[in-house]
Automatic annotation (TrEMBL):
Domain (Malectin): residue spans on this chain: 363-544
Alphabetically ordered keywords of this record: ATP-binding, Glycoprotein, Kinase, Nucleotide-binding, Phosphoprotein, Receptor, Serine/threonine-protein kinase, Signal, Transferase
PANTHER family: LEUCINE-RICH REPEAT-CONTAINING PROTEIN DDB_G0281931-RELATED, PROTEIN KINASE DOMAIN-CONTAINING PROTEIN
Membrane topology type: Single-pass type I membrane protein
Keyword Nucleotide-binding belongs to the record: yes
Lineage, uppermost ranks: Eukaryota, Viridiplantae, Streptophyta, Embryophyta, Tracheophyta
Catalysed conversion reaction: L-seryl-[protein] + ATP = O-phospho-L-seryl-[protein] + ADP + H(+); L-threonyl-[protein] + ATP = O-phospho-L-threonyl-[protein] + ADP + H(+)
Subcellular location: Membrane
The protein, known as: non-specific serine/threonine protein kinase
Species name: Gossypium tomentosum (Hawaiian cotton)
Membrane spanning residue stretches: none
Kinase keyword on record: yes
InterPro entries membership: Leu-rich_rpt, LRR_dom_sf, LRR_Rcpt-Like_S/T_Kinase, Malectin_dom
Length: 585
C-alpha cells in the first residue's frame, strides 16, 4: 500500500509521508469540502463512510492508460496524526459537472487533474488564491477566458488547458509565472497576440498553442529568452511568420512543430543556420511560406529523426544529404528543380487515349475497405494498408498519403479504419470502413473522358462517439480540394452529418480537361489532437464516386477493354508531388 502511495506524490515530500494512515485522519472540514467538491464535479461514488486518506474503496483505484481515481494525502502533520489532501486525480471518468470554486477549502492542495471528462463552465478565478503547482484540464467543455487571478499561483509549474472551448486573449499577468514549465493551450478559441511579457517565462519547457485564432507574428523571445525550451507546437495557431532566429544556447530543444503560418514568403529561418541544437529530434515546418533553397547547414543537425518541410516554395536542388538519409522526411509540394529517379514514364493520359485506350466515365472507391455493391453500384476495394507516407496505384486510380501520427501509441502504418459504432447492414456498408491520413491524402482518377463530372464524397465519423463522454468532444477538421481549388475549409464531419456515426455526402462538380481528376484532403492544424487519445487527427474519407452524368452506360470495363496502364497517368499530377517529395519512410 505504501509503495502505491508514493507513485502519486512528488519526490520531495516522500520522506514526509507515513505508512500509519490508519492512525492519521483527514480533518472534518476537508472531508466536508470533498463532499461538496464531489457534488459539483458530478463525482457520485466516493465512499464517505471511510476516511478519504485511507486509500481504501472508492478513494484509490488501479490506474490505466488514461483512467485515474486517486485522492492523495500528506499525513505527516501533528506527529503523523493529521492528513491533508494534496492531490486530486479524476481522469477519464466522464464527469458531468463544473469546476468547483470551493476547491479553496483544501488549503494544502497542490495538484488537480481532471483530464478527459465532460466538465463545463469557466475556470474559477478563486483558484488563484491556492497553493496549486499543477492544473490539468485537458479534454473537457470548459468555456470563458483565463482569469488573470491564476497569475497569483507563483509556484505553478504546469497549466494544461488543451482541447476545450476557452476564448479571449491571454492575460499578460501570466507572464509572472516564473516557475511555469508546461503551458498547453492548443485546440481552444484564443485570440489576440501573445503578450510580450511572456518573455519572462524562462522556465518554460513545453509550449503548445496549435489550433487557435491568435494574431501577430511569432515573437522572437520564444527562441531567444526561453532557454529551457524542449517542445513547441504551433500548428494552425493563427500566427504569422517569419520564424525568428534562435538563441544558440537552446541545447535542450527537441521538437519544433510549426504549420500554416499567415504572412508573406520568407527565406529559410536563420535559427537553423547559426544555432547549435544537439538534441533536435523533430523539425516540422509545414506550409510556412518558405522560399529559396534548403540550406546545406541544415544537414549538420545529425540528431533529426523527422524532417517535414512540405508545402512551401523551396527551389533549387534537393541537398544530397537528404537523398542519402534513412530518416523520415517529407519535402512534398515544393518547386525543386530535380526529382531524382522516377519509374513513371512522362506520358500523359491524352497521349494514352490516342493509343485507343477507352476513356472512363466513372470511378467509385470504397475508401479503406473491400469491394462492395450498394444499391446495384459497385465500389472498388481500397484496403491497401500503406504506410506513414506512401503512393499506391490501382488500375484506374491512385492515392498518396503523407505525414505521421504524432503519438507514441499509434502505429504510422495503419491508415485504414473499421467502425465499432456502425453496422454493415442498414445502408451503412460504405461507411463501416474509412481511410485516414495524418496530414495529406490525395486521390487521383485518371484516363477519364474530358467532361464535367459529379463528384460525391462520402463521410462518416467513426473514431469519435456521441453522448456525454469525453470521446464525443473530438473535432476532426480538414480542407477539401478538387482540381486544385479549395471547396471546403475546416470541414468537420460531425457538424456536417449531425453527429458521430452518421453519414454525410458532399457533392461537387468537376470539369476534367486532361483526363485526370485530383481530390485532395489536407489537415491544416485545426481540430483536436488528443481526444479520445493523441494521434487522432487528419482527414478521413469513407467513399468516393466520380460519375459523368452525360454518359448512360455506367458499366464496368468489358473484358476486352484495355485498362488504363500505370504509365499513361499524367506524371505531373500523379507522381511529381510524391516522387519529387523524396519521402524516406
Amino acid at each position: 500500500m505504501f509503495i502505491h502511495r508514493l507513485l502519486f506524490v512528488p519526490v520531495f515530500i516522500v520522506c514526509c509521508l507515513t505508512t500509519l494512515t490508519n492512525e492519521a485522519t483527514l480533518p472534518n472540514d476537508e472531508v466536508e469540502a470533498l463532499r461538496s467538491i464531489g457534488k459539483i464535479l458530478g463525482k457520485t461514488k466516493w465512499n464517505f463512510s471511510i476516511d478519504p486518506c485511507s486509500r481504501g474503496n472508492s478513494w484509490l483505484d488501479q490506474p490505466t492508460r488514461y483512467y485515474a481515481n486517486n485522492i492523495t494525502c500528506d499525513c505527516s502533520f501533528n506527529n503523523n496524526t493529521t492528513c491533508h489532501v494534496i492531490h486530486i486525480l479524476l481522469t477519464a471518468q466522464n464527469l458531468l459537472g463544473t469546476l468547483p470554486p470551493n476547491l479553496t477549502s483544501l488549503p494544502f492542495l497542490q495538484k488537480i487533474d481532471l483530464t478527459r471528462n465532460y466538465l463545463s463552465g469557466p475556470i474559477p478565478p478563486e483558484w488563484g488564491s491556492m497553493r496549486l503547482v499543477s492544473i490539468s484540464l485537458l479534454g473537457n467543455r470548459l468555456t470563458g477566458s483565463i482569469s488573470g487571478e491564476l497569475a497569483n499561483l507563483r509556484n505553478l509549474t504546469s497549466l494544461i488547458l488543451e482541447n476545450n472551448d476557452l476564448f479571449g486573449t491571454l492575460p499578460a499577468a501570466l507572464g509572472n509565472l516564473s516557475k511555469l514549465e508546461r503551458l498547453h493551450l492548443s485546440s481552444n478559441k484564443f485570440t489576440g497576440e501573445i503578450p510580450e511579457v511572456f518573455a519572462r517565462l524562462t522556465s518554460l519547457k513545453e509550449f503548445r498553442i496549435s489550433n487557435n485564432n491568435f494574431t501577430g507574428q511569432i515573437l522572437d523571445f520564444i527562441f531567444q529568452n526561453w532557454t529551457n525550451l524542449e517542445h513547441t507546437y504551433m500548428e494552425g495557431s493563427g500566427l504569422s511568420g517569419p520564424i525568428p532566429s534562435i538563441n544558440a544556447t537552446l541545447e535542450n530543444l527537441e521538437y519544433i512543430i510549426i504549420s500554416d503560418l499567415n504572412g508573406a514568403e520568407t527565406s529559410f529561418p536563420q535559427l537553423f543556420i547559426n544555432a547549435r541544437l544537439p538534441k533536435l529530434d523533430r523539425l516540422m515546418l509545414r506550409n510556412c511560406n518558405l522560399i529559396g533553397e534548403i540550406p546545406a547547414s541544415l544537414g549538420t543537425f545529425t540528431t533529426i529523426k523527422i524532417l517535414f518541410l512540405n508545402r512551401s516554395n523551396f527551389t533549387g536542388s534537393v541537398p544530397q544529404w537528404i537523398l542519402n538519409t534513412k530518416e523520415k522526411m517529407d519535402l512534398s509540394y515544393n518547386n525543386f528543380n530535380d526529382t531524382g529517379e522516377s519509374s513513371c514514364q512522362k506520358r500523359t493520359c491524352s497521349q494514352a487515349l490516342q493509343e485507343s485506350i477507352t476513356p472512363l466515365h466513372f470511378v467509385r472507391i470504397n475508401c479503406g475497405g473491400g469491394e462492395i455493391t450498394v444499391n446495384g453500384i459497385t465500389y472498388e476495394a481500397d484496403n491497401y494498408q500503406a504506410g506513414p507516407s506512401t503512393f499506391y496505384q490501382s488500375t484506374n486510380w491512385a492515392f498518396s498519403s503523407t505525414g505521421i501520427f504524432l503519438s507514441n501509441n499509434r502505429p504510422d502504418d495503419v491508415l485504414t479504419l473499421k467502425s465499432s459504432i456502425l453496422s454493415s447492414n442498414g445502408g451503412y456498408e460504405l461507411y463501416t470502413d474509412a481511410r485516414v491520413s495524418p496530414s495529406s491524402l490525395t486521390y487521383y482518377a485518371f484516363c477519364l473522358a474530358n467532361a464535367t463530372y459529379n463528384v460525391s464524397l462520402h463521410f462518416a465519423e467513426i473514431q469519435f462517439t456521441n453522448g456525454e463522454t469525453y470521446s464525443s468532444l473530438g473535432k476532426r477538421m480538414f480542407d477539401i480540394y478538387i482540381l486544385g481549388e479549395r471547396v471546403k475549409q475546416d470541414f468537420n464531419i460531425i457538424e456536417a452529418a449531425g453527429g458521430a456515426g452518421l453519414s454525410r455526402v458532399q457533392r461537387f462538380n468537376a470539369n476534367v480537361t486532361d483526363g485526370t481528376l485530383e481530390i485532395h484532403f489536407r489537415w491544416a492544424g485545426k481540430g483536436t489532437t488528443s481526444i479520445p487519445e493523441r494521434g487522432i487527427d487528419g482527414p478521413l474519407i469513407s467513399g468516393i464516386s466520380i460519375f459523368n452524368p452525360v454518359d448512360v452506360t455506367d458499366q464496368p470495363h468489358s473484358s476486352g477493354q484495355q485498362p488504363c496502364p500505370a504509365s499513361s497517368a499524367d506524371c505531373q499530377s500523379l507522381s511529381l508531388t510524391f516522387l519529387q517529395a523524396l519521402h524516406h519512410f
